[in-house]
C-alpha cells in the first residue's frame, strides 16, 4: 500500500508540521521532533492537480483488470473532502478546484475513448457507479430515495477472488464525466453531515464511491472474448473526532462515537495486516468488511492521510501520521481479476439504471460468459 500525506493550510503562523521532500516532521512546544517518511508528501501550497497526478497511474490500472482504492483519512476538518470532491465538498470541473473523484472519472473515460479508438479489434467497455455510506455502523445506498432507504446486507461474493457484494445496492451506468457528477451530486446531497465546533460541514458517515469497470477484448489466438472486471474505490472516511473539542451533543455525539468505533476497527485491521497476522478482524465493522479487498486484499491502494499543522491539533496529527506509517507496511496481493471469475457475480446483486448507451459500450443487462 502506498501512503501519501497532505498538509492543509492554516492561518496559524506557528505550524507544527514541516515538509521536506518525502519527509514530514512534527514538533510541538519544544518537544523532540518526530520525522516520518512516506511515498509522497504534499505541503499546504500543493494544488489539486499535483495531488491527482500522483494517484492517476494507479487508477489507470483498472483498465487492465486491477482493483484500485484511494482512502482519504484524517481528523475532522483536515481537508479530506476537499481532496476527494473539491473545496467545501463542492462538485466542479474547474481545473484548479476539481477533486480526485471527478478527475478520476474524466481520466478513465479519456483512456477508454483512446483505447477503443486505437484498438485493432473490437474493444468494449461499460462503467457503472455505486455510492454507499456507512452510517452508525450500517451500510446504506446513497443513490436510493431517502424515504425508501433500508440497511443493505454485505456478503462474500461467490467468485474466485474472495470479493465482497452489497445486496440491493443501486448501480448506475455512466458514460461521461458529467453523468458521474450527476451521480455524485445525488449521493452527496443525501450523505449525513452536521455542524460542529471544528467543522461547519462535518461528515457523519464514511462514503465509498465505486466505479465498476468492465472490459471485453477478443483473444488474439482463438478470437474468444476475454472479460476483465475491476473496480475503483474512492473512499472519504469520516474524520476522527474529540467530542470535547467538537462540542458534539445528542445525535451528533452518538455519530461521533460510532465514527471513532469504526476507525478503531480499521486500526485493528491495519495492526493485524501490517504485522502479517494469520487473522484480521474484518468482520468487526461494516466499514472494514466493505474495504477488505483494499486492506491486505487484491486491490492496489493509496492511503491518503490528511493532517492539520495547527498546534491545537497536535495529538490528532501525531496519531494520523503514525497510522499512515503503519499502513505503509501493508502488502496487498495485487492481481488481475480473471475472466472466468468475472461472469459469476456481475449484475447479480444490483439494480442497474442505464442511460442512453453508445455503440462502444456494453448493453446494460447482458450476462458475461467466459
Write the layout of secondary structure elements.
Layout: E1 2-7, E2 17-20, E3 23-26, E4 34-37, E5 40-42, H1 48-60, E6 68-74, H2 80-84, H3 100-118, E7 124-135, E8 138-141, E9 153-156, E10 164-167, E11 170-173, H4 177-190, E12 193-194, E13 202-203, E14 206-218, E15 225-236, H5 243-246, H6 251-274, H7 286-290, E16 300-307, H8 314-327, H9 339-345, E17 351-353
Helix pairs in contact: 1-3
What is the helical fraction, as a range of percent?
25-40%
Average pLDDT, rounded to a whole number, is: 81
Number of helical stretches of at least 4 residues: 9
Specify the oligomeric state.
single chain
The H-and-E topology, N to C, reads as EEEEEHEHHEEEEEHEEEEHHHEHHE
Distance between the termini: 31 Å
Broad shape: globular
SS elements, strand count: 17
Helix/strand/pairing category: alpha/beta
Q: Which percent band covers the strand fraction? A: 25-35%
Sheet having the most strands: 10 strands, mixed
Query: What Rg, in angstroms, do the CA atoms define?
Result: 20 Å
| Poorly predicted sequence stretches spanning 5 or more consecutive residues | 197-201, 338-370
